[in-house]
Amino acid sequence: MRKIKVFCAILTASVLLPMTAQAGTWTHTYNDDYGVSTDKNLWFYLKDNGNFAQNEWIQAEDGIWYWFDALATLPNEGGLALDGSMYNGNGEYVDMSTITFVTEDMYNQLQEGMSYDQVVAILGKEHEVHTSERQQTGDQTSMFCR
Questions:
Q1: What is the pTM of this model?
Q2: What are the tens digits of pLDDT across the range 14-26?
Q3: Which whole-number Å values give the CA distances from 15 to 10, 12, 19, 71, 134, in the listed order?
């Protein structure tokens, strides 16, 4: 009877306790028609089963989700995944609930003219200009913001 209780306890614990997931491998190396190639400008994710991640989200060890496109590469431009989710220029998932969209009232305020502080208050600190540079070309003066 005691063996049955121990067995049941071990079985229950093995089901309820989370299992350690094996991580795949980030790589610049891939297989093509000519054999094995390496491209330092492209990222691929080789899953544990030996297949490259393709048209799917992969969660990295740091918790960030990355989209891998139909070519099995990490995109270098933002876009929409097949499930309709957005990803940025690093292939990272973009949480749309954290993005502030400009309403008609905000647009009208922008058209009428707002102070710099009012614009930052609406759009957020991430849109704050860190440096700016003026450049004179003939009669025109251009301002570049970074």
A1: 0.54
A2: 433 333 344 788 9
A3: 9, 5, 9, 37, 64
